User: What shape does this take?
Amino acid sequence: MKPAVLQLIDSFNQGGSERQALQLTRLLTESGRFKVHLACLSPEGSLRNTIEDLDLGEIPSFSLTSFYDQNAVRQLRSFVRWLKSSGIDILHTHDFYTNVFGMAGGALGRLPVRIASMRETAGMRSGSQKQVQRVAYSLAHHIVANSNAVREKLIADGISAEKVSVVYNGLDLRRLATRASRPESLSLLGLPADEVVPRRFVSIVANMRHEVKDYPMFLRSARQVKEAVPDVAFLLAGEGELSDSLRALAVELGIKDSTFFLGRCENVAELLSISEICVLSSKAEGFSNSILEYMAAGRPVVVTDVGGAREVVSEGETGYLVPSGDDAGMAERLISLLRDPETARLMGINGKRVVEEKFSCEAQLARTESLYERLLG
Assistant: This one.
């Protein structure tokens, strides 16, 4: 009989952790070496339709309002009962909330293998949340980090090195394929049609929920780039409660007419197809899915040197790394690439090759299945 593995996700909302977990669910299901189950803390979100064709059976939901109320106790009991009745051998959780809930349930259910995940280095959790997550990690048999930077952070926080493995995010290159022409892409994204001289787009894809993404750094950089390269415009793809303040900052900086807030972007392939350069301005990251997508689309990148960025971006070959908060340095690099399209093109080609060779779905699947089998003994 195949070992049964449960992937526990927070929700089906758009997000890097959710997308990676669902992609892994698909890869494991199609591989056929394990019996794959999926459960969630919330059934909501547009990503649900990406796995509807998989034979996963019931996808139970264990909805939480807090970790500290009677509902949490009821849901935890229900989760433990479900784990036992489903014969789960391996529990794999993917973010803060599923780590805490899942590892507690897995320990109570005495599951043979409990695997938590870490995808961030700093800037996302309060002190109390860090304490709770440390308890969750103590209940896990193993922790998966999505970069060496994250692994080193876990070890520095006191986790045994033998307890942490690196499994890089895998990227499905098919997601970035598009046959849309430039005019069609502009229309799909709600952007104005080209004028006599087409705009040259610099793009960023990141949520607007957390200060750690540091969109203000990008906008300050954008103002400097606009002064040097008049035909440039900026595309910001992401949603969240910070969007209003960021729009106000674009007005304050005098770049409102050249700055397009796209909200949640369902047409990432089309967005990247019309972009000349792509950016990430985060103060901290684990390992950015956005950087992989940029490079897989053949775009040069200018990103802050945080988290696992250095593990995928080769300075001067696939893009540029700049210090966090250094908007002038970012602007300088962007201007140089806009003024030298051939160098930008070659960086894009190099970057696409790196992603294809090192960060494929096949590599992610192989590393994960090997880890599962090793932990099962």
